[in-house]
């Protein structure tokens, strides 16, 4: 490839070859010539993906980074992906996800209207890969289509003060299921103490915090442009399953020479990765503040609320109680217990999950009880029939606002 691609799409993977292969087939089926596809394997058995990728290497858009002599920690696997890119814009998705390659054309249109734009965020679709005994899900399809600028000041409030957060932050704008200009990623690397794109093992939030701190102008698209998949092996599938989450966390720690729970910067921050997603985000937030000298005071009450929301999401009373007790102990130790009273999780009895289908508050809920899509790409194509085509989306930079649905 002699020209500079508009968009580099990175797919780092580890030991999920069946799903990874489906993503590779879907992305390489695109006819676009202005994209670069960077596939990074990090598997215990390199031969599986080495053999599979061989026929795809004739495609000039494809770059393949094979597994190394030893397993790369996730943060290094993402670093290897970024180092292999040449595009003006970069996006990262998981090996069980999907992204529309036509994002490249949308980026060109946005650049024409706003030459100094540095980050594009968008709504996402969600897809649970089929597996035996899978319970039915209701998948949300955002029907709004506006493209508008998001003000940096409000994004900083959402990122650093946890305004409007639930169990995750409500700021959006990261390289994971978003697009970031190369100029911004190079600035992030230059400003880092280690000359890296990614430093913290919680790589997606490492990038979100740095991007919002150092970025200039931000654009949000309310139409979904990618699919966040959840295969049975994914971390997403473990969010509301304590036992599975702990098993995957143990594997995550083993891949790092210095597990984050042992880092010196957390001596005064008693929340740990095993507490769950809100704690992991809080740990990244705390590290970024300490490492780079930022004062994020004022987030504490919102953080306590997010931890409570996380606990309330567990499907069983036992998991709710175990998680709540662990957080309650951490809040009692943190800053002399000053914010313990703001951690108020409430168990709500719930019926067995039902897959709802229909319209509600401007969103379409699709029941997957009788779904025929077998992959995120197939699901995106199916839903695409009811969404406005990307080429027809209207760009409105007259109004600057944060969309209520912006989320990481």
Give an account of the 3D structure:
The chain has 408 residues and is of the alpha/beta class. The chain is globular and about 60 Å long. The chain has helices at 17-28, 47-53, 74-83, 103-113, 152-160, 182-191, 203-214, 242-254, 277-292, 300-312, 317-333, 376-384, and strands at residues 7-12, 35-40, 62-65, 89-92, 98-99, 117-128, 138-142, 147-150, 178-181, 217-230, 358-360, 363-367, 395-400. The longest helix has 17 residues, at 317-333. The strands form two sheets. Strands 1, 2, 3, 4, 5, 6, 8, 9, 10 and 13 form a ten-stranded mixed β-sheet that branches. A three-stranded antiparallel β-sheet has the order 7-12-11, with no helix packed on it. The protein contains twelve helices and 13 strands. The protein has two domains: 7-233 and 367-400, Spore Coat Polysaccharide Biosynthesis Protein SpsA, Chain A; 241-314 and 316-342, no CATH class. Helix 9 packs antiparallel against helix 10 (300-312) and helix 10 (300-312) runs antiparallel to helix 11.
């Amino acid at each position: 490839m002699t020209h500079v691609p508009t968009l580099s799409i990175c797919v780092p993977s580890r030991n999920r070859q069946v799903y990874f292969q489906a993503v590779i087939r879907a992305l390489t089926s695109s006819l676009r010539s202005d994209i670069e596809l960077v596939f990074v394997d990090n598997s215990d058995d390199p031969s599986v993906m080495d053999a599979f990728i061989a026929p795809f290497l004739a495609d000039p858009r494809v770059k393949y980074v094979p597994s190394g002599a030893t397993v790369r920690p996730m943060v290094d696997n993402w670093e290897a992906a970024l180092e292999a890119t040449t595009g003006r814009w970069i996006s990262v998705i998981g090996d069980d996800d999907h992204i529309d390659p036509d994002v490249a054309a949308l980026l060109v249109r946005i650049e024409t209207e706003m030459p100094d734009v540095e980050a594009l965020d968008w709504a996402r679709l969600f897809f649970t890969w089929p597996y035996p005994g899978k319970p039915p899900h209701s998948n949300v399809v955002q029907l709004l289509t506006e493209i508008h600028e998001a003000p940096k000041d409000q994004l900083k409030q959402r990122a650093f003060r946890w305004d409007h957060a639930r169990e995750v932050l409500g700021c959006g704008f990261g390289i994971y299921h978003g697009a970031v200009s190369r100029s911004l990623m190079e600035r992030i690397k230059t400003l880092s103490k280690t000359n890296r794109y990614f430093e913290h093992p919680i790589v997606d939030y490492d990038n979100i915090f740095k991007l919002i701190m150092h970025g200039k102008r931000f654009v949000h698209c309310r139409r979904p442009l990618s699919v966040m998949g959840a295969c049975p092996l994914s971390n997403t599938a473990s969010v509301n399953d304590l036992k599975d989450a702990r098993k995957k966390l143990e594997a995550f720690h083993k891949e790092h020479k210095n597990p984050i729970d042992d880092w010196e910067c957390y001596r005064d921050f008693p929340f740990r990765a095993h507490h769950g997603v809100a704690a992991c985000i809080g740990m990244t937030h705390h590290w970024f503040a300490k490492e780079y000298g930022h004062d994020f005071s004022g987030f504490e009450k919102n953080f306590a609320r997010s931890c409570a929301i996380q606990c309330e999401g567990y499907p069983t009373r036992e998991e709710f109680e175990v998680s709540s007790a662990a957080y309650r102990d951490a809040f009692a130790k943190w800053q002399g217990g000053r914010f313990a009273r703001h951690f108020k999780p409430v168990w709500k009895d719930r019926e067995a999950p039902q897959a709802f289908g229909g319209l509600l508050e401007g969103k379409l809920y699709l029941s997957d009880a009788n779904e025929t899509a077998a992959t995120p790409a197939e699901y995106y194509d199916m839903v695409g029939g009811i969404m406005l085509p990307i080429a027809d989306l209207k760009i409105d930079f007259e109004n600057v606002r944060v969309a209520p649905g912006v989320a990481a």
